[in-house]
Amino acid sequence: MRPSIESPLAQWLAYIEAIHPQEIELGLVRLSAVAARLLQRDRPPFVFTVAGTNGKGTTTAALAALSRAAGQSVGWYSSPHLFHFNERIQINNQPVSDDLLVQALCAVELARAETSLSYFEFTTLAAFWLFEQAELSVWVLEVGLGGRLDAVNIIDPDIAVITNIGLDHQNFLGPDLASIGREKAGICRAQRPVVLGSSDLPETLNAYIDQVGAQAYRFGDHHKVVGATLVWQGGELDAGAISIPLANAAAALQAFSLSPFALTPVMAQVALQSIRLAGRMQSREHRGRHYILDVGHNPHAAAYIARQFGAQKFHLVLGMVQDKDAKGFCSALAQGALSINFVTLAGPRGCSAEQLALATGRADSPQFATLELALAQLDRDFPGEPVFIGGSFYTVAAALNLLEN
Fold it and tell me: How far from the centroid of its chain's Cα atoms is residue 139's Cα?
C-alpha cells in the first residue's frame, strides 16, 4: 500500500525499496523525466559533485565544511548511511528530520506518476527537492555508483572532483580500470573544472576530460601533499590535526579555491580540523583495548588502511557483502595482521563467515556467527591487543553499536 504524508519514514523507505524490481538500475532517462516535473531549477545553486572509488565521503565532507566556514548555506548528499537514513541528506551539517524526509518522498511520489524509480533514484530526487525548498547556496553531491549514469549526474556540477580509481562494482562499471575510469569521468562538463585527487589514473579518464573540454587540475601539479603540508593553487597549510586522508583534503582545497567563495588558509585549516566522520579510520578505546574501524571494502581502500597501520599490527575482524573482492581486500591487509577473523554479515547480500574464509583462501581462519562472538573470543585469547574491524558499512555500524552499548 502506498504510504501517506502521515506515514512514518520507515514505512516510506520500505515502500520505495519494494516498488522497483532492481536494487540498482543505472541510467538517466526515467530520472530526468521525473526531475523535470519535480524540480524548479530557476535559481541553480553552486554545485560540487564528487566521484571516485574511495574517499568520496571524506572529500564531500571537506567541501561542505569549507563552504559552511565561508558563510554559505549547504546541502550535503552522501551514501550509504551508518545508522539512520537521515545521515545521507544534511542541511547545514544537520541530518534532515523524518518529517521533512516524508514530505520530500511524498513530493517525489506525486511527480513520478507511473514512472518506476529505484531506491537510490527516489531518495536522490528527495534530497534535491529538499535542497531546492531550503534555497541553499551550495550543493555538495556524492556520486553513488560510477558517475556517467548515476542519479546525481542529472545535476550539472560547477566543479567536479574525481578522487581515485580502483576496482569495485565491476558488474556495473566494467571489468577493468579503463572502463571504470571512463564511467567516473562522466561527471565532467565542458569548460568547467575537474579536480583529480590522484596521480595514478587510467588514460581513459584523461582522454575523456580532453574530449569533453573540461579544465583539469591534476594531483601533483596543481595540488599535492608535501610531508605534513597541504598545497594547492593559492595556498598551503599544515595538515596537523586533520583526520581525513590528506590527498582528499588537498583535492577539496583545490576545488574550493576555484569556487566564488574564499577562506584564508587558517580558516580552511580550522574547518578541516573540525571534520569527524564515523567509520573512517575511527579510533575507539573500550575495556582496555584499542580499536580501529573503517568502512572501506575494496582492495584500494584496504591498501590505504594498511598504510595507516604503519608498523603496528592488529587482529582483523572482517565481515563483507557478497559482491566484493574479499580475497583482494584481505590480502592487502594481511601483512598488518596478528590474526584474521571472519564474521557472518546478516542480510540478503551478506557473506557468511565460512563463505568469506573460502573466498579469501583462508579456510583455517577463525569464523564466527556474530561480531559479538568474535570479539569475546579475542578478549579471551588476546586481551588488550589492538583490533581492526571493517569490510563493510554494515560491519562497522554493528561494531559501533556493540562498543557503545
Answer: 16
Secondary structure E strands in 104-217: 138-142, 159-162, 193-196, 215-217
As beta bridge partners, residue 387 has 291, 315
Other beta carbons less than 10 A from residue 293's beta carbon: 22
- CA-to-CA dists, residue 308 to 220, 222, 269, 324, 394, angstroms: 21, 25, 21, 22, 22
| Residue 253 vs residues 91, 335, 381: alpha-carbon distances, Å | 21, 33, 45
Q: Summarize pLDDT for 156-189 with one digit per residue, the tens.
A: 999 999 999 987 666 667 778 888 999 899 999 9
Cα 10 to its chain centre, rounded Å, is: 22
Q: Is the pTM above the cut of 0.90?
A: yes
Whole-angstrom distance, CA of residue 89 vs CA of residue 332: 32
DSSP 8-state symbol, 349:
T
| 112-164 pLDDT tens trace | 998 999 999 999 999 999 999 999 999 999 998 888 989 999 999 999 999 99
DSSP readout, 293-348?
A: EE---SHHHHHHHHHHHTT--EEEEE--BTTS-HHHHHHHHHTTEEEEEEEPPPST
- Measured CA to CA, the distance from residue 170 to residue 212 in angstroms comes to 24
Residue 170: predicted pLDDT: 67
130 contacts 104 by C-beta, under 8 angstroms: yes
Kindly list the structural domains of the chain, giving each domain's residue range(s) and its CATH number in brackets, ordered by start: 9-273 (3.40.1190.10), 282-404 (3.90.190.20)
Return the C-alpha cell found at 260.
566564488
- Beta strands 229-232 and 235-238: pairing type? antiparallel
